[in-house]
DNA polymerase III subunit delta (Inmirania thermothiophila), 339 residues
Amino acid sequence: MAQIDAERIEEDLARGLRPAYLVHGDEPLGRLEAADAVRRAARAAGCEGREVIEADGAFDGAALAEAAASPGLFAARRLVELRLAAATLKAGARRVLEGWLAAPPPDAVLLVQAERLERRELGQAWVAAMARVGAVVQARTPARRELPGWVAARLRARGVEADAEAAARLAERVEGNLLAAAQEIERLALLHAGGRLGVEAVEGSVADSARFDVFALGEAVLAGDPARALRVLRRLREEGSEPTLVLWALAREVRLAAAIAYDVESGAAPAEALRRHGVWRSRERLVAGAARRRPAAWWRARLRECAEADRVIKGFAAGRPWQVLEAVAARAAGAALPG
């Protein structure tokens, strides 16, 4: 059974090309690089042809079945890419995939790409067959505490040794945006090839790639991270963001957490409550964690504070808008503040 982390796909490919790969996960950079690695290995192994099948929610497997039955016209071997847009597949598509994996066409390598598949889909027979016949490759977003190590390892692979402080500072500057981090690392590797990278070099040459939009503030609040919430808020102020827009994004997340917490306290299953309020799958863990961490009454109190901040921003109450926003955001993220 081949279950491979996307960071280790190159090592696996060095041992030989498998008949099929599933590349999935919630990290776009990891998916992109893993799929590119499979393509390079396929070309090196003689796959001169390439077919791409875009599979939306209505995909029934017919196009894949046709590709399996139709050998390449001009190439001895080919790479067939199936790009899944949905988190689950129809029964017909699953059967076609199972059939392909039961008897892989000798002239083709299959590359299935998907974002984070639902747990129910990962338990399907076609995924088990993929792990048995080929490989299931997961692109995982590193936790924030893992980012400095990820940065240092990536720099080291490009011939640059980074101080611990430099790696931590770079990780902070890109704020978990791995695509931006990869670009900065490539640039720093060119500037400091074969040398050491200190924090001064990072400060002097790295553009601030962490785009602190208003939604990042809400995410920090839901994650219960007051330090990050304040850092995002201060950057938004520096960038000239409108307080009204910032408060809207903050209140939106507080209102959502209050609603989910209330539904769960009223007897709804967390998954049902998340579906009822249209929470995207990629945000389910974040929102559910916030609702579980505090009761609905606590979140409603934070919502009342948002209403008071709105009065200050509009000039109906005394106070400085950004100072009030800082207090509201910090408290909503879990900081213990007076008042």
